[in-house]
Amino acid sequence: MELTREELNEFGRQAAEKARSEAQAAGLPFSYGQKGRVFREYPDGRKFEVLRSKRKFSVRGNC
Question: How far apart are CA 56 and CA 63, in angstroms?
Fold first, then answer.
């Protein structure tokens, strides 16, 4: 059985939503991409942009 692009996108969306819910329930932060940027969101609602330099990752202020 071959899936359409729309079906693959829907499965991906559902998997991401489930992972986010499970992370929140466990009190863990989760990371996601949005418009070419990466963010980390914590269960208490704090949201930070994750920045990447040549050697390391860092987190920039509350978004």
Answer: 20
